[in-house]
Amino acid sequence: MNPPSIIHLANEVDDICKNFLKPRGLSYYHFKRVFKDDSFIILVNQPNLFKMFLESNFIEPTYYVPTYIRQSPVYFWDELLSSELLSHLREQHSLYHGITIISRQKDFYDCTAFAMSEFHPSPSSYYLNILKDLQTFSELFPKMASSLIENVSRKRVKISTSTHNLSSKCFFLPERSARFKIGEGTNDYVTTYEALCLQLLQDGKSYKEIGFILSMSPRTVETHLERLKSRTGLTLGELFLQSFKIGSTRKIDYDFAYAAEDEQHKIKTLRKKSNDK
Amino acid sequence: MINKAGNLYPPFQHVGKMQKMCQPFLKSNSLSFFQIRRSYNDGGVSLLSTNMNVTMECIRENYLRGSFFEKQNAKNYGDIYMFKDMAPPILVSFIEEKHKIFDVITLVRQGKGYTDFFSFGLPEKCSAAAGYYAMILRDLEAFVADFLNSARSIMNSTEKHFVPFVEHKSDDFFLPPYNPAGYVLKGRKGQVSITHEEFILLHLIHQGKTKSEISKILSFPAYQIDYLITLLTKKTGYPLYILKPSMVKSCYTADSGNDIPSFWKDAPGEREYRAALS
Fold first, then answer.
1. Distance (Å) from the C-alpha of residue B9 to the closest C-alpha of chain A?
2. What is the CATH number of the domain that holds B79?
3. FRET label pair with B274: which of A38, B66, B72, B259, CA 20 to 30 Å apart?
4. Predicted model pTM
5. In a domain, A126, yes or no
6. Would the CB atoms of B78 and A75 count as touching at under 8 Å?
7. ipTM of the prediction
8. Which range marks the domain in which residue B200 is found?
9. Are residues A122 and A193 in the same domain?
10. Cα dist from B156 to A275, B151, B162, B206, whole Å
11. How far apart are CA B270 and CA B278, in angstroms?
């Protein structure tokens, strides 16, 4: 990456998000897309900060990730990053109270981060109030800056393994579905992708949008939901209510899903070996 | 605590019911504490919670202090706030040590004549509480909406026996007090006058409420709200997403204070409201 092109890109990114950031008292924005082969691209609002990202991949809680944060799509910098890093950000770059929103996909995951330029007395409750706006903007940005992202994704940067301690699947969607039990019957279970479809549908998204997010065609979304309905014998409205009561289906246990995926993989490989013999 | 009539105070009768209703939700989200506080505009509060000791404490002494700080700061936050951001650290540490309730979050909802404060708490200290709440925020909102429907009979029974705190008359920072003079808004072609109901409608829309919710709060039929909205947009010449409650000014602002009629100057809660505005 040449420095002049980076600055040019930063200006373009700034043009896109200026109108959103200013009225909300925010000053900093970065968009980061991490691919499965440990490479990433980044788009930043402020050109001075760009060099730091190339030196070290530091705005990531690589050393300590609690399980509930791994499930959640949102984390606050003040709570998870080390105090040295936070003080460095404040003194050198005057960045306060950052927030990062993660959206999972099969082949990559997107981190979008916002931060303020001044101290705020109660950042967490301020952010919780405007969280919906931030989430919609983070969904819209990849569509608005699609040409920019295409240009940059030709020149990906690789994460060095020493700084990247996370297991590689941490924030990706699991490839295979795991079963979560609802009731005691044999047919009373929900798979991860059915639960995801339900959750997104309840948030008011169309089949097309759900398909875009989960990287499947809208027709498969329909079949997922139909299979769920026929298996459990409930209508969609009842399922919305029920999932709320159970709690386990709306909040998907990704760790469990990854573990199930690993087990299935092991069994398949064993079977292959036995067949070969 | 025993009532004048000799019965148990109503909040304590319902603690068992509340625990039954809320526990499946609280357990699945690893929460431990839930409280609803409904404060009426004409003074008085009704309390319900899953924890007996905390309600006792609230009624005896700490409630007064807590409500004071909430009233002062509630305007700066919106529908959602964390307790530790707003309350003094002494109070927060007191609740943490004595009752083992950590990182309380509060959601605010308005109705006609009252405001509801739903608060949730964790059983242990969480290093990333705000991140955790951000993750389950949608579940919390759904639970609050469901609770209002399913626990209507309990709420109605407590309504008659609310805790009488007469000193705190106006808890109505969220829905502004009734102003007989009306409100003024800067439209595209100049100043436009606005009625009290339209002002409240703007507030509710800005909070992101749905049409059915608004119709419940204002006790209008839903189709009438459409009509009100079209009237507003026609009047001002702006689309809805530009209109905000902060653009509206009451006819008697602090600048033109001399014009205030005497009967309105001494109205209950008006002085505090003006002080909070300035």
1. 30
2. 3.30.450.80
3. B66
4. 0.69
5. yes
6. no
7. 0.79
8. 183-277
9. no
10. 69, 9, 10, 28
11. 13
